[in-house]
Amino acid sequence: MARLKLKLACWDYDRTRPLIDGRVRPEGLDLDIEVLRPRQMFPRMLEHREFDASELSLASHASLLGRGDSPFTAIPVMLSKIFRHSCIYTRAGSRIERPEDLRGKRVGTTQFSATASIFMKGMLQHEYGVHQRDIDWFIGGLDKPTETPLIPLNLPPDIRIHFLPAGETLEKMFAEDRLDALISILIPPSFLAGSPRMRRLFPDYKQAEKDYYRRTGIFPIMHTLALRRDVHDAHPWAAASLYEAFRKARALAFDELYDTDALRLGLPWLLDHIEETRAVFGEDWWSYGVEANRPTLTAVGQYVFEQGISPRVVTPDEMFVPGLD
Fold first, then answer.
1. Could you tell me what percentage of the chain is helix, strand and coil, using 3-state DSSP and rounding each to the nearest 5?
2. Based on the domain organization, do 204 and 240 belong to the same domain?
3. Do 304 and 59 contact (CB within 8 A), yes or no?
4. In this structure, are 177 and 248 located in the same domain?
5. In three state form, how does the secondary structure of 48-82 look?
6. How many domains does one find in the chain?
């Protein structure tokens, strides 16, 4: 029987590289893999359905499902996970010492509905009682022109939001004291350069993230693996084949982490970090599947509703092809 050809887009992570270089091949499938940065592939999948399967923003996926017009289902492969306490920056002199101090302040961000922003706003609301309506929002490019939202916004009327005009950037506004804080998916260039004017809201963000995980069970998922619904309807067996292949690729990536003969970049403390991670998260610390990630998936399904990105709560089980745990 001929193998089914599928076009797949993803980034070159350690957990996808065995698929990209051919060490892992999904049963019954021939993958034509296009390696793209997330910001390149997301619009191409969301707007033009260019790929049969693609890495995709989890919040965009959940929001489209909630709106009732999603052309995708998803496979519970969690390609990108990252805590975001380190991504909230405040301006020296802004008198913001605690998350609660963000109320009434001018806060910039590049993407109001990006998964990272959704999780940060959800964390501020549920952990510290700071709702998105309590903040004056400024949306624009960090140090380049404004980015287009991944999906159209239709926000509640109580949200105070300002889109930056042409020629304006968040970094420029921050440097001129016209912003009090930044919620930034990427590390701001001025912070990387050591600017004394920019500091993290959570100086010991690593400990804050550990405490947050122990309290909530939430390890924020940024990207999952979306499958076009028409492809799934025509070839329902392909989802299980892809899921198993991505699991095998992840297993190879785990094995390589412990290859002490050839550590990545020669990082001398890498094994210490791995053991610390296992102590916090357990053996399956980069878990795939719905059940292992249910607290996180439940949270994002709730947050997209609370933040006006979806008209209803989206449940974990409706996000993914059933039966793949």
1. 40, 20, 40
2. no
3. yes
4. no
5. HCCCCEEEEEHHHHHHHHHHCCCCEEEEEEEEEEC
6. 2
Is 67 within a domain? yes
Euclidean distance between CA atoms 203 and 199, whole angstroms: 8
Question: What's the whole-model pTM score?
Answer: 0.94
CA dihedral sign, ordered 148, 149, 152, 154: negative
Pick from 159, 188, 216: which residue ends a domain?
A: 216
Beta-bridge partner residues of 91: 198
Structure tokens at 121: 């706003």
Output the tens digit of pLDDT for each of the chain's 325 residues: 579 999 999 999 999 999 999 999 999 999 999 999 999 999 999 999 999 999 999 999 999 999 998 999 999 999 999 999 999 999 998 899 999 999 999 999 999 999 999 999 999 999 999 999 999 999 999 988 767 777 778 888 899 999 999 889 999 999 999 999 999 999 999 999 999 999 999 999 999 999 999 999 999 999 999 999 999 999 999 999 999 999 999 999 988 887 766 555 455 667 788 888 888 998 889 999 999 999 999 999 999 999 999 999 999 999 999 999 8
Strands (E), 59-129: 72-81, 88-91, 106-109
Task: Give me the domain span that covers residue 92.
Answer: 85-216
